[in-house]
Each structure stands twice: as structure tokens, then as C-alpha cells.
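Quarterly update, task 2.4: nicotinamide-adenine-dinucleotide-bound model.
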Amino acid sequence: MVPPITLNNGVVMPQLGFGVWQVPDAEAETAVAAALEAGYRSIDTAAVYGNEEGTGRAVAASGVPREDLFVTTKLWNDDQGYDATLRGFDASLSKLGLDYVDLYLIHWPTPAHDRYVDTYRAFEKLYAEGRVRAIGVSNFLPEYLERLLDETSVVPAVNQIELHPHLQQPAAREYHAERGIATEAWSPLGQGKGLLEVPAIVAIAQKHGRTPAQVVLRWHLQLGNVVIPKSVTPSRIKENIDVFGFSLDAEDLAAISALDEDRRLGSDPATVN
Ligand code: NAD
């Protein structure tokens, strides 16, 4: 049901997945179980979310064959550096209860520490060993990607960045597209804050007999983004994957394009340490 996208190394990733930021471990188990039941096959967690164990328990209990799942986790900032990265990865893998992860991301570049190149070299080792099927980054500005492209050998498969109608990131998307890096949108629903009440989005939702969240997810998919909406509410978990039975037209897409305010909800990647 969810269309696949092919990453630059040939690995296939569902274009829509399930995010678990800010979900406590026990609740993550229930939410991931509900998501797998609803048909999601891609799960996005991170070491710093503190819910890799709950995510892993839900995956193990689901009965979904491992090869049908796509599990992403992320290395936390404190674990950057070559050796620390290898230890951080072992800890994540063990908490998840898996033999490999599908996608491993550097969570933030933390440029002030200048360790992301060494960190990425450890990612390349994990990739060469087959312990991760694809490696990538998160919150990388083009200038940091440029350094990785210059100083390392494996082109990141993904850059996961804040992206929603109020922060459409046209320059980053173009930069990624030119280099074969998939753009993955975090906080795709704008964290469910004011975005879902914006009159233009509500009007498009009414026109299609859909919800504002479904319209925003559809906009991402039609732009080519990978999306990972989060919810712990079973009805919304189902609603957020039920976005393949309609399409936005050119007028709808133009109305949403006009909402860009270049406004972040989250942190500025240049200053996170
Ligand atoms: P989101 O944009 O997915 O919004 C989630 C919130 O929107 C929910 O908590 C809920 O309040 C609301 N919501 C969800 N579905 C809804 C619906 N159908 N109708 C109405 N309201 C709805 O926000 P997010 O959790 O920040 O981002 C999604 C995922 O992205 C995270 O869970 C995480 O996996 C990832 N993420 C990554 C980073 C990073 O630095 N790499 C940062 C933030 C988030």
C-alpha cells in the first residue's frame, strides 16, 4: 500500500513510516504495535528517544518478517567520534533486539565539535560489515554534506530534516536531489500545532473529503519526500497511513507552496551541540 522509494544504494524504503519521538518506552511498544497492525512497515526511532527497547519488543511481537520491516535509528550527539559511534551502535542494536538496522543516521551534525566526519567513517565501517543496510544523516545543512562528500566515500542515502508547509526547504531538497540523497521530512505535520488549522489546508481537506493531516502528508508524498508522522492515537495512526486513495491537484499544491514561511519549530542545526 505504501509506495517504496529506492535509495542511492538500491535499498528500498517505504515512503511513509512511523515516528516515535517523545513517546515513552512502554507507550512506544503499544504505538508501534498499532502502527504495524495498521500497515506501517517503517519505524523511525533514535537512541536519545529512550524507546528503542519498546520499539524492538513491538517489532518482535508483531510476527512481521524482519525482511518486510525497515527500522531506522540514530546515533546521539554524545556518542559521536569513531570508537564511541561503534559502541553507540552496538547499544542501539542490542536495545532493539535486532541483528541489523535498515538505516542508521547521525542525529545532528554538532559542527562545533567537528566530529561528524570521523563519526561517518565509523558508519561506513558498519555499512561495509552489513550491520546497517544504508547510512545517512539528519539535520545536515548542505555545507556539512559537502564535507562528507569530499572527505568520505559513501554518499549518504538520506538526510532527515525538519520539513513541513511552513518550512519547505526548497534549497536543501534541490541539493539532495542533485546528489541522489533522499529527503526525509521530520515533524511532517508541523508537530500537529497550528498547521492543521490553517484555512488553506482545511479548505483543501474539505474539497477532498479528507483531514488536514492527510492533506499535508499527501503534499509531502507528491513532492517526493519520505515522511514519518507520529501519533499515539490508534485512529490517527490509521488516518495517517490512509493517504493513497486521493491526489492533490496543481491548484492544491500551489496553495500549500504559498504557505512557506521558512520558519523552524525545532533547533537550528548550526547551533545544536
Ligand atoms: P509530527 O509533525 O509527526 O506531528 C505529530 C503530532 O501531530 C502528534 O503528536 C499529534 O499531536 C499530532 N497529530 C498526529 N497525527 C494527527 C492527525 N491525524 N490529526 C491531528 N493531529 C495529529 O511531529 P514529530 O513527532 O515532531 O515528527 C515526526 C517524527 O519525526 C518523530 O516522531 C521522529 O521520529 C522524527 N523527528 C526527528 C527529528 C530529528 O532531529 N531527526 C526531530 C523531530 C522529529
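Highlight for this quarter: The first helix runs from residue 25 to 38.
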